[in-house]
């Protein structure tokens, strides 16, 4: 797992003549499982039961995304903890 910072933009909400008010950090994350555009896998029986129920199919996709998000959050927390451990 890896996060590469590609750009840091300083925000000047009160104008450029004053101190910056925040930053926007752009990055690329590699090695994480989460991808909201991945496919959902259904068994034949699941599909046959839901093929005429578009909302039912959408629910299966949402459940798949929720599982992916939970895994992604777990990976992010592991990565964050490894950064804390390495900093000591």
Question: What is the strand and helix layout of this fold?
Answer:
Layout: E1 2-11, E2 22-30, H1 44-50, H2 54-87
Antiparallel strand pairs: 1-2
Organism: Oceanobacillus neutriphilus
Protein name: Phage protein
Structure description:
It comes from Oceanobacillus neutriphilus. This is Phage protein. There is one protein chain. With 88 residues, the chain is an alpha+beta fold. The chain folds into 2 domains: 1-31, no CATH class; 34-88. 47% of the residues lie in helices and 22% in strands. It has 2 helices and 2 strands. The protein has helices spanning 44-50, 54-87, and strands at residues 2-11, 22-30. It has a two-stranded antiparallel sheet with strand order 1-2. The two termini are 20 Å apart. The mean pLDDT is 85.
Q: What's the total number of strands?
A: 2
Domains counted in the coordinates: how many?
Answer: 2
Kindly, what is the distance between the CA atoms of the first and last residues, rounded to a whole number of angstroms?
20 Å
Largest sheet: spatial strand order:
1-2
Low-pLDDT residue intervals, each spanning 5 or more residues:
none
Q: SSE string, helix = H, strand = E?
A: EEHH
Approximate strand percentage: 15-25%
Shape: elongated
* Mean pLDDT metric: 85
Tell me the radius of gyration: 20 Å
Q: What share of the residues lie within helices?
A: 40-55%
Class by helix and strand content?
A: alpha+beta
| DSSP summary: helix tally | 2
């Amino acid at each position: 797992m890896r996060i590469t910072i590609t750009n840091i933009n300083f925000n000047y909400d009160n104008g450029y003549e004053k101190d910056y008010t925040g930053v926007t950090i752009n990055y690329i994350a590699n090695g994480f499982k989460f991808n909201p555009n991945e496919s959902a896998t259904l068994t034949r029986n699941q599909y046959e039961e839901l093929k005429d129920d578009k909302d039912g199919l959408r629910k299966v996709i949402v459940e798949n995304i929720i599982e992916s998000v939970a895994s992604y959050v777990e990976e992010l927390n592991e990565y964050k903890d490894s950064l804390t451990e390495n900093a000591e």
